[in-house]
Fold ROK family protein.
Amino acid sequence: MAGGGAGRGARAETRSHAPRRALRRTRHQDRHAAMTGPAAIGIDIGGTAIKLGLVTGEGKVLARRRFAYAAMASFDHLAGMLVEAVGAMAAETSHDVAAIGIAAPGHARPGDGLMIDGTSNVPLLRDRSLAAALKDRLNRPVVTLNDGAAAAYGELHFGAGRGLERFVLMTFGTGVGGGVVIAGQVIRGNEGEPPEIGAMVLDAGARPGTFEAFASAAGFSAAYRDAGGPAEVPPEQIFARAAAGEATANLALDATCRRIAQACGTMINLLNLEACLLGGGIAAAGAPLRDRVASHLTDFAWPFLCERTTIAVAATGQDAGVLGAGAWALDRRLIA
């Protein structure tokens, strides 16, 4: 379905921190406002990098660590490195670690944190429970959350989602993921299952024709190759070449951003979203990404709804998963 050009189109929001209207405070936000002491470790595990942060209830990152996923030789090596990093950050800041939150691709089984789905980009976690391993070694409560849901939680409380009740966060990097927020709550299944935003089929005739195939880092590179450029050029270089005026790079980015707009339009039509937030490493491109997506949105979103939504770059950047995992751990600790 095409919305046509009748609508004014989505705004390309430049001040993503500014809420369009006040959001009802949730129990979790009230807890955050009252929390000045405890801090949690947020761990964001991706196929390229593993990021850690010591996070306060107000969204401040007091200490950070980063490791290359490829440097991890085994599950036990990964767990050991994380334990050392947690101890070092606690000592560095003289701050007690109240809880630990893990943001990971796929889905962890409630209760024991065993990873049971979606670990193709992080095979060390397949059929293992990092939560149980860290709990045993650190004697702290540990929770696991899908990385896209964690990033959405971080944006909801500390980023461009503040003040919004309905938005989607899309994350673009090694894969495509994200989270959906409705009525100020991150939406998950009955057993915590995340939405699979990257699995949306945008072209049934392509193999594969999924959102992830078009808009992951590999998808950007493939679009550049298909437009006549060399193979395996990373997205950041494609954006740089487009900024320098290269026609091939601009053609490739336009094709990929049109696919992103198609996915945004589909979700806007279904959920009457206030905003589609663009996150992940590729979103560091900023306005050139945001503006291209917004320019195509009227072809896919119903005009009445399109006028009432915003395309914006996520405000928490590379900290989204760390912030969300840490905040989630603090909130789960208070509820338990």
